[in-house]
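pinging the channel bc i need a second pair of eyes. not urgent but kinda urgent?? the chain im working w is below, pasted from the shared doc
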Amino acid sequence: MSMMNKIKTFFTMDDEYEYYEEQEEDVPDTTSNQKRKNQNVVNLATMQQPSSKVVLSEPRNYNEAQEIADNVVNRRAVVINLQRVDHEQAKRIVDFLSGTVYAVSGDIQKLGAQTFLCTPENVDVSGTITESFEENDEFEKGW
């Protein structure tokens, strides 16, 4: 017995209670139709919006490239400082990240002598940084 029926039973006489039961049966049940209609409606306030996040990364070896790539795949921009990595491993990291960025339709940009920015397609970067890096920088040779 529903709570409403219990309350009706408590406050009404037996004859009146039968009358309420008959009325309830005659009323069409529209709540099930409303529930079906509302199943396709999504409340925007409850949807989790992707957060704009920039990750700073300073890998020490090539093995950390996968973690950086995972951030790009998860739609986060990553700034990578390659100062702690030797030149050959840094080139491998940039090559690996270039492939990852290409796969997610993103972009990779050189910000400095040993600094790169990897962005997924949902991030637009505007502006430019001049390429007046130190000419004697060993990292620049071959890039």
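so The longest helix spans residues 87-103. and The mean pLDDT is 75. — does that match what u expected or am i reading it wrong
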